[in-house]
TrEMBL record:
Coiled coil: none annotated. It comes from Halapricum hydrolyticum. Residues 8-174 form the Glycosyltransferase 2-like domain. The keyword Mitochondrion does not apply. The chain crosses the membrane at residues 248-268, 280-298, 366-388, 408-432, 509-528, 540-563. This is Flippase-like domain-containing protein. GO terms for molecular function: glycosyltransferase activity. It is a multi-pass membrane protein. InterPro entries: DPG_synthase, Glyco_trans_2-like, L-PG_synthase/AglD, Nucleotide-diphossugar_trans. Its main location: membrane. Keywords: Cell membrane, Glycosyltransferase, Membrane, Transferase, Transmembrane, Transmembrane helix. SUPFAM superfamilies: Nucleotide-diphospho-sugar transferases (SSF53448).
Length: 610
């Protein structure tokens, strides 16, 4: 070549055997019209093709030194192939366009020179701003308009057409923006432009003549759905996540609790709630605390069984202490940071690597959620199946309630039955898929979308199912962990039942069944990491179920929920303080150590991706 390459044009090619040769010829001829000889190169970014595209691209590169062939053995996705090729390009001005030449090549000079000579860092053609000529059939135009409108609204972009396959970039600016870009398929263009604008780079959008050629490779169901999920993901990352820290999380959670208390005073008399609590039998409340203590050695035993399945051995006593400490961390810190504390304790005291520590905890969480949901579902379905409609009505709404309250009770029962069915179906589905060699998760997600974010979502779900599979593949381990989980959460429910007795509530079989359902729903509500220990969330969910399904009044239901939750939290806190002294563990240091690991892991993944 006569001079150093200034401009690199990348042609993303996936199964383009019929068109790639002509596209390269037209591209070279157009570049020759306005760039000096030797100042440009054309790169065929061949993305794991299944046809003759690699063979043709190799021949073109051999015949003309201005052409290069960048090959990938596996499918990288449209954005991934572009990024891979750009990193190997030699020019300071980088450009690409779709190989079907839908955009008139008379615009190529303006595209390249906007960045090369006019001072813009990014340039893109547009099929939607005034002055363009674009023949877009409704099946393409309507989804495109909707997509761009959502990007403008949620991501505050000023671009009219984010997906036009006709763009140029300043090399340094592009690589700076790519630090924030996660997608590697159709959303890649949009994410680049959004982050470029947010970083303050100058972006030029100009009208182009555009004519669709052949069938689009965009699947209007899968890819439009996938890009919609990408908009939500990017909105969360750029607009929501940066504003959420530990302080904000705690403030929001505290605000929700305060709001719940204020709203409660509009239909409950706080004095009545306090009076009910003062009249509770303290001896019986103490018995409930002793019963709850019995569940903790079972937690340690279950955790031992999980760790043994992962290849690590430890004694139940130590593990019970570690769980006490982590749950105490969840009482003190928002966002369930206590979970990370346990991973730190297992690493520092038993040399269990962080990945295995988090995996074991995830398995435990999965069994907790499945057991809670299963208990709720079985109890409610049992009520529906064993009681006549008259008995249900009498049990739910009593004889002294108004018509509106009667209707509310019936509605609550219908909803509860629906939740029960869903819980049982979900439990059976997860266990079945975990024991199957067939990847149902990947199959289901791929039907909706094939982009990188869909892959990420599928990976998260697969990890969830994989955690279950780790134990479910061993029938003995699955039976042990499942049985222990049932015992743990049954004790949790009976703690609440004893608290009900402390308030003088008659413990009929129906009331005990409602208690199972109310405690289960309350614990499911606590899964949301909005408040430390789920304060307010548990009480609200518990009271709603009890009031909706029994004649127990709101003030009494809230009183029972508060005392029940307080008993469990006080036992946890006491056990945590004792365990921290025994194992010489600092909560704050454990959180700092686990966060340092998470940050290092995030950096490692970024380096691996690049």
């Amino acid at each position: 070549m006569d001079r150093a390459v200034e401009v690199s044009v990348v042609l993303p090619a996936y199964n383009e055997a019929d068109t790639i040769e002509r596209t390269v010829e037209v591209t070279l001829a157009t570049l020759e019209e306005f760039l000096p000889a030797g100042a440009f190169e054309v790169i065929v970014a061949e993305d794991g093709c299944e046809d003759r595209t690699p063979e043709i691209a190799t021949r073109l590169a051999a015949d003309d030194e201005r052409v290069r062939h960048v090959h990938s053995d596996q499918r990288l996705g449209r954005g991934g192939a572009l990024e891979y090729a750009f990193r190997q390009a030699r020019g300071e001005t980088l450009a690409y366009f779709d190989t079907d030449l839908a955009t008139d090549m008379s615009h190529l000079e303006e595209l390249v020179e906007s960045v090369r000579s006019d001072g813009y860092e990014f340039a893109t053609g547009s099929r939607w701003i005034p002055g363009n000529t674009a023949d877009r059939p409704p099946k393409r135009g309507i989804p495109s308009k909707g997509f761009n409108a959502l990007v403008q609204l949620l991501l505050r972009s000023e671009i009219e057409d984010h997906q036009c396959g006709f763009k140029a970039f300043d090399r340094a600016a592009l690589f700076d923006v790519l630090e924030e870009v996660e997608d590697d398929h159709w959303f890649w263009d949009t994410e680049v432009l959004v982050h470029a604008q947010r970083a303050g780079y100058d972006v030029k959008e100009f009208p182009v003549e555009w004519t669709p050629k052949g069938d689009s490779k965009v699947d209007l169901v899968r890819d439009v759905f996938g890009m919609g999920s990408q908009i939500v993901r990017t909105f969360w990352q750029v607009s929501v996540s940066p504003r959420i820290d530990r302080r904000v999380n705690a403030a929001v959670g505290t605000g929700l609790v305060a709001l719940a208390l204020v709203l409660m005073t509009t239909y409950l008399d706080p004095g009545e709630v306090w009076a009910n609590m003062r009249e509770a039998d303290l001896l019986v409340v103490g018995v409930s605390a002793l019963v709850y203590v019995l569940s903790w050695p079972l937690r340690g035993t279950r955790y031992r069984d999980i760790l043994e399945r992962l290849g690590y051995r430890s004694d139940p006593g130590f593990l019970t202490g570690a769980i006490f400490i982590s749950q105490t961390g969840n009482l003190v810190f928002p966002a369930r940071l206590g979970d990370a504390v346990r991973a730190y304790v297992m690493k520092a005291r038993r040399s269990v690597p962080y990945p295995s520590g988090f995996a074991s905890l995830a398995i435990e969480r999965v069994f907790d959620l499945l057991t809670i949901a299963f208990l709720a579902g079985v109890v409610v379905l049992g009520m529906v199946m064993t009681m006549s409609p008259t008995e249900l009505q009498t049990a739910i709404v009593g004889t002294e309630l108004s018509g509106g309250q009667e209707q509310a009770g019936r509605t609550a029962m219908v909803v509860a039955a629906g939740v029960g069915v869903a819980a049982i179906v979900a439990t059976l589905g997860i266990v079945f898929s975990a024991r199957s060699d067939r990847n149902y998760v990947r199959e289901a997600v791929s039907r909706l979308s094939s982009d990188s974010y869909a892959d990420y979502v599928a990976g998260v779900i697969e990890q969830f199912a994989g955690d279950v599979q780790t134990v479910a593949s061993d029938r003995r381990a699955f039976a042990l962990v499942g049985t222990t989980s049932l015992l743990i959460w049954t004790i949790d429910v009976f703690t609440a039942v004893i608290v009900l007795a402390a308030f003088g509530v008659e413990l009929t079989p129906f009331v005990i069944g409602v208690a199972f359902f109310a405690v289960s729903v309350g614990n499911l509500a606590k899964v949301l990491p909005l408040t430390p220990a789920g304060l307010g969330l548990y009480e609200g969910a518990f009271a709603i179920i009890v009031v909706g399904l029994t004649p127990i009044g709101g003030a009494l239901a809230i009183s029972v929920a508060i005392v029940d939750h307080a008993v469990k939290n006080l036992v946890t806190l006491a056990g945590g303080l004792v365990s921290m002294a025994w194992l010489n563990v600092s909560l704050t240091r454990a959180v700092e150590e686990s966060e340092a690991y998470s940050g290092a892991e995030s950096d490692r993944k970024r380096v691996t991706r690049e």
